[in-house]
Amino acid sequence: xxxxxxxxxxxxxxxxxxxxxxxxxxxxxxxxxxxxxxxxxxxxxxxxxxxxxxxxxxxxxxxxxxxxxxxxxxxxxxxxxxxxxxxxxxxxxxxxxxxxxxxxxxxxxxxxxxxxxxxxxxxxxxxxxxxxxxxxxxxxxxxxxxxxxxxxxxxxxxxxxxxxxxxxxxxxxxxxxxxxxxxxxxxxxxxxxxxxxxxxxxxxxxxxxxxxxxxxxxxxxxxxxxxxxxxxxxxxxxxxxxxxxxxxxxxxxxxxxxxxxxxxxxxxxxxxxxxxxxxxxxxxxx
Length: 286
What we know:
The strands form three sheets. A seven-stranded antiparallel β-sheet has the order 4-3-9-1-2-6-5. Strands 12-11-10-13-14 form a five-stranded parallel β-sheet, with helices on both faces. A two-stranded antiparallel sheet has the order 7-8. The chain is an alpha/beta fold. Helices cover 23% and strands 30% of the residues.
């Protein structure tokens, strides 16, 4: 990911208003919710979009600026001073070189997770196509996310039920993590989605690894197949939409499970092509 591929020529200063770990202390993953106050009067963004974080300095790759995109995890808000506020969901990442076995810290994620209240970071954007709310308020939405891919769905669901208010379509959220400790916004530390469980149109389903202490894959396929009848019924609707967010390898899992659910690779290829052509299949993957 290169800065020159995204840079609009304008960057902004943002001050850290708060930083909070949202995974349990005993979880092996540290994920933080970081709220930034943007030092300008307007900074327009929508659920499904991302902002760029620019980390200056001498980096191992020789870049003058290190650049990464992070999905916004809330609807547009203002701080007490009236300035725009942006919420990010950031996982502290580290990488093991497959050849040398050396461990490297992710530059942007560790930089952000190490910031304190009052620190200044440089951002730009927003980037990407928003998760648009359909004009037909009875459109069914299938939301599928893994890991920090839950961030844009947190923003979208809040927008549907707190801003749109009259949304009548089904909203089905499928969210996967290695274990309950890694579930974001659906755990004891922070359970934002619980406020929507009493809505007739909203349901959330968890997909966890069958053996969280092992390297078993997250069972997203089982979670979806258990509800295949309803999901296929939703996909049969000419108005239903599918939003996918998370690591790019989630797409392989979804192709495999939908091929099994629909009956053949050819049938799923046609259905997926139809969804994409009608802008009813939207991906936010990294």
